[in-house]
Specification:
alpha/beta; Pyruvate Kinase, Chain: A, domain 1; about 15% strand; about 290 residues
Length: about 290
């Protein structure tokens, strides 16, 4: 049985843990709200681009782009987002499991000869995918980019993916990431970035104004110039969604740790009180026994 001094020490350690997890929860919550605000600020830019594309699609003008040219997939890239820091629960594990399921799906659809190159964003995800030992599955950690990358790094990463697709290095580029819904809910998303498909603009059809337009210099030139901007908006969204989701997962993990610490603190305090009461009762009995004698 633990002594009073040992219990007091354990109670102090648990109390310190409560304070630490509480502080970490507050910090993560602030970071999450910051990422959420950044996400809201990005949406008007993406909405405007989608509106322009919707008006182009609704017109009778002819346009095309090499970014929409599909071809047989012999080599594809899968960019998968994780975190650079820990203490966020099963966040990275859940994304990694989705990646494994997606690789199995690729094999079923593309066959065993197709090369799949994993592009992990975030050191935790890079560490997880480095252990993959599957045939024709390679890992290439993108340079100069992580889960906390700013606008310049995100832009450079987007253009590298675009150029790799246009040069034929990749026949397809997909993304796997955690989409932010709320502090208690995030969902894993899998989307095809390149080639850009008609389905990507299916939700923008309702944004078309239906007004007659005169395109200058031409619909095709406008479409060719604005499509890369659309790609950039999508990738920026993914980075921001990932940051918000990571912090939301960390908030929930710290809340769970704080609740467990509080529960343990209460149990230890109860045990301490019982042991102290038992010690007091024993001392009183000794005193009374001495007086009787």
């Amino acid at each position: 049985m633990a002594t009073l001094r040992e219990l007091k020490g354990r109670i102090g350690s648990v109390a310190s843990s409560e304070k630490i997890t509480g502080a970490m929860k507050m910090i993560s919550s602030a970071k999450m709200h910051k990422a959420e605000q950044a996400l809201k600020q990005l949406r008007p830019f993406r909405d405007q681009i989608e509106t322009i594309i919707a008006n182009l699609i609704s017109s009778d003008a002819a346009f095309s782009s090499p970014l929409m040219s599909g071809r047989p997939v012999e080599k594809m890239a899968v960019a998968v987002w994780g975190s650079d820091d820990g203490l966020c629960g099963a966040y990275n594990v859940n994304v990694f499991k989705q990646l494994l399921r997606q690789i199995a799906d690729y094999r079923e659809k593309l066959g065993n000869d197709a090369v799949i190159e994993i592009l992990p964003v975030g050191s935790k995800m890079a560490k997880a995918v480095s252990k993959l030992a599957l045939p024709n599955v390679r890992v290439k950690v993108p340079e100069g980019v992580d889960s906390k990358s700013g606008d310049a790094a995100v832009r450079d990463f987007t253009w590298r993916l675009r150029d790799a697709f246009l040069s034929g290095e990749y026949d397809r580029v997909d993304m796997i990431y955690m989409s932010f819904k709320s502090v208690s809910r995030q969902s894993i998303e899998h989307t095809e970035l390149l080639p850009v498909t008609d389905e990507a603009f299916a939700s923008t059809a309702s944004k078309a104004t239906g007004r007659p337009y005169i395109f200058e210099p031409s619909a095709n030139v406008i479409f060719t110039r604005i499509l890369p901007m659309y790609l950039l908006a999508v990738v920026q969204d993914v980075f921001t969604e990932n940051r918000a989701s990571e912090q939301a997962a960390r908030v929930m993990a710290m809340q769970s740790a704080n609740d467990n610490a509080k529960k343990l603190h209460d149990e230890l305090q109860l045990e301490f009180n019982k042991l102290r009461q038992q010690a007091i009762t024993t001392e009183l009995l000794d005193i009374l026994g001495g007086q009787v004698r």
